[in-house]
Amino acid sequence: MSGEPSIFFADVNERQGSFLRRTFVFGGLATLGVAALVGRLAQLQVVQAQEYATLSSQNQFNFRMVPPPRGLIKDRNGVVIAGNRPSFRVLVVRDETKDLDQTLDLLGRLLPDTLERRRAIIRDVNASSKFNPVPVKSDLTWEEFAKVNLYANELPGVMADMNDARYYPFGGSFAHVVGYVAKVSDRDVKAIRDKGEEVPPLLFNPSFRIGRQGVEKALDEALRGEPGGNRVEVDARGRVVAEDVGGSRPAVPGQEVVLTLDADIQNRALEVFGEESGACVVMDVRNGDILAMTSAPSFDPNLFVGGVPSSIYRALADYERRPLLDKALTGTFAPGSTFKPVVGLTALKRGGDPNRRIVCNGAYYLGRRFACLGRHGSQDMRSAIKNSCNVYFMTLAVEVGPDAIAETAREMGFGQTYDIGISGQKPGLVPDREWRRKNPVRGDGKWYPGETPSYGIGQGALTVNALQLAVYASRLANGRKAVTPRLIKSIGGVEQGGDRSFADLPYDPAFVQVMREGMEAVTDVGGTGFRNSQLGLGDIRMAGKTGTAQAQNYGAGSRKGAGRPWAQKDHNLFIAFAPADNPRYAVSVIVQHGGMGGGTAGAPRAREVMKVALLKDPEMRARMERPPAPEPTETTDLTQPSTVEPAAPTPEAVDPLPPSTEPRL
């Protein structure tokens, strides 16, 4: 076959050598491969064994965040005013359900009320992270809880458990000052990101609640605590098959917050308002502790924990007496005649004589007539406070001027906010000539003389809130120190408030004593607050000052609101302190559109609240229980005729305030 190529070996050994060389090359390569494989296995099994064991464990186990119990909020005596309670709930895990709609249909047969919130439930479930349980309903009854567990096998992705829910045992009594908690909203997350801060993962947990309003909002981070985690074993699809108790991390509860409030005084303060609207603040005049700060009407904060129905929220928001508004801090009102001691102090500071007498013939004239409801005759400063004489204080106001009055008002606590640990305060308004220049009326920035008489009796542009009135009353009662309020007593066991030594009042204590004596006369026989301010607690008496603030220009109509709509009636105010001879507690009361005088609407409410404060004070109780001093014995001459004089008649309790003769500014 001459056409085919052939290989010829001249020597048999040459053919054998070629075969051996090929065998050696391929054998060497095989040996190197085996050596590399053995080396890699050795690295995996020996050198990196721990690393891959850890990764394997992480694939088998994961952590589910557990929200921490929220910190307790207590009153000064250790009474819990915001706590936690156990709550049964049902949850849905989206990635463990084959068909979410079908699962919710089956769940709706067991819990019919979930059908009403179906759209919101689907939105929450879709927004949650993978395998994160989303609460569908909280506060299940035992029967509902048992029913869900009974049919658990037929409800893929549904589970029932027990958690801690926020609870407010006194309902509306502390709603405004303590606040409430609610679900985290997109606005909460955005607000944190806008600050350039990282959003804590806890906020994305569907079970977490964030503080709203009051202490709950102001101290939210301290009350949150640190989240824990349950270490659970999962299958290849990420579903839980077991829990590793030993590998779980417990949550750390939030810090305990203690307030200066007293639950008994606070509850009574709300109770006395009944259906009326307004605010009440009680302070200790020695250290500034706020014992009560309530706003009426109130609302039940427990409604907001699980999500308040829109119909209920709308009803609260639309009610004309505004139960959602904190009237103690954000509600501002003209102080009316409660402001008159400010004018008196202003005059004394500028050399005035408290014994100077001014004659009241029923009106003050300055270009026009400013009425005084009553003809009080000749009055000194003490009797003018007792009778709430407008003519007397209008006269002083015109003499000292608006700038001097504004200076004293600010020194006594008006026109400012206080660092009490919570936000929302409105400073009100203390007007003066500078303010008028910056806030002209129809382009005219001049302070006209006709504005001053109204200013002198707490009307015009002047506005204050209930906390400021309590501070004012506390400073009058203390007599020497510019007392400032404190609400947060301690956080996590650490005392708050710093140094409680106060600055001195810029007045001769004798001047303040004149105001106190006048206020004591207000609650004495013939005073504007006499009838409704008697405590009935032994020899302990309460000193105070009534006030009535007009809500509009009534013209020739009735000032007392007879037949008028609620929103057109007068506001009624009362400030007081007790005991009058050695003040310990001060109170301010505002009855919004009460339609009566401060001595009729405000004084009885202040009296009831003050009685609780005094009865809870051991030293005051000891004073009440002390037997009265024996009457001095006299030798009676039976031969002489009796000279006993008849008791003086008790005049009507009136808080004079003229009809508005000029528009409100």
TrEMBL record:
Residues 617-665 are annotated as: Disordered. It comes from the Bacteria. Residues 66-243 form the Penicillin-binding protein dimerisation domain. Residues 656-665 have a biased composition (Pro residues). Pfam families: PBP_dimer (PF03717), Transpeptidase (PF00905). Its main location: membrane. Residues 278-611 form the Penicillin-binding protein transpeptidase domain. It is a single-pass membrane protein. One of its GO terms (cellular component) is plasma membrane. The keyword Protein transport does not apply. GO terms for molecular function: penicillin binding; peptidoglycan L,D-transpeptidase activity; serine-type D-Ala-D-Ala carboxypeptidase activity. It is found in: Cell membrane; Membrane. Keywords: Carboxypeptidase, Cell inner membrane, Cell membrane, Cell shape, Cell wall biogenesis/degradation, Hydrolase, Membrane, Peptidoglycan synthesis, Protease, Transmembrane, Transmembrane helix. Residues 617-628 have a biased composition (Basic and acidic residues). The keyword Transferase does not apply. One of its GO terms (biological process) is cell wall organization. This is Penicillin-binding protein 2. The lineage of its organism: Bacteria, Pseudomonadati, Pseudomonadota, Alphaproteobacteria, Caulobacterales.
